[in-house]
Amino acid sequence: MNKLIASTSCDREGTFQGLKVAIESAMEQGAKSLFILSCDGNEMPVEQLNDYFQHLDIPVFGGLFPQIISGTDNLERGHIVCGLGQALPVGTISLANGSPARWRETLESQCPWLANSKSVITLIDGLSQHIDPFFELLYDHIGPDKPVVGGGAGSLTLKQKPCLITNQGVLTDAALVIGLPLGADIGIAHGWHQMAGPFLVTKSEGNTIHTLNYEPAFKVYRESIESGSDKRFADAEFFTVAKSFPFGLENLDQEILIRDPITEENGSLVCVGSIPEHAMVYIMQGDEETLLNAAQEVTKSFSSDPASGIGANTLIFDCISRGLYLGDQFNKELENICSTLPKDALLIGALTLGEIASSPWGPIQFLNKTIVLSALQEQ
Amino acid sequence: MKRAMMLMSIQHELGMSAGLELELKPMLKKFIETCIRRLNLCSGHVYLMTLAPHERPREADAAGRTMANHYLGIPSQQSSATQHHPALAAAIEAIYLSPDTPHRLFSDAPQQFYHLFTIKAIGVLVLERKNSQLDPEIVKAMLPVIEQLGINCRAAYEHETMLYETQKRQSTQKALHASETRFRTLLDNLIDSIITTDSDGYIESFNPAASALFGYSEREIIGSNINVITDCDLPRLSAGSSATSADGNGKRTEAEGIRKGGQRFPIEISTKAMSIGTQQLYSIIIQDISERKETEQILKTQLRFAKAFTGIAELLVQEDSATEIMDGVSTIVGEALETDRALIYDIDFSDQYVVCLSEWINPDTHNVYSTKATYPLNMFRGGCEHIRQTKHWLESHANLINPHLLEDQSGRMLHHQMGIKSLLWYPFQFSPTGYHLMVFHQVRHQRHWQHQEIDFLNAVVQHVNMALKKTILLNERDKALADLRLAATAFDAQEAMFVTDNNATIQRVNKAFSTITGYSEQEVLGKTPRILKSGKHDEHFYQTMWQTLEQQGYWRGEVWNRRKNGEIYPEWQTITSVKNQQGEITHYISSFQDMTERKKTEAHIERLAYYDNLTGLPNRTLLLDRLKHELALSKRNKKYGAVLFLDLDRFKTINDSLGHSIGDALLRQVAQRIQKQVRGADTVARLGGDEFVIVLAELNNDTEDAGFSAQIVADKIRAALCLPYHLHDHEYQFTPSIGIALFPENNETVDDVLKHADSAMYQAKSHGGNSIRFYMPDMQIAADERLALEKDLRQAITNNELILHYQPQVDRQGQIIGAEALIRWQHPERGTICPNAFIPMAEETGQVIEIGAWVMQEAFEQIKAWNTSGLCRLNPSFAINVSPRQFHQSDFVQQVTRLIAAAQISPSALKLEITENIVMKDVEDTTQKMEELRQLGVVFSIDDFGTGYSSLAYLKQLPLSQIKIDRSFVKDITNDPNDATIVETIISMARHMKLDVLAEGVETSGQLSFLKQQGCYSYQGYYFSKPLPAGEFEQLLREINDGEKSSLEPA
Question: Do B303 and A200 make contact, defined as CB atoms within 8 angstroms?
Answer without folding.
Answer: yes
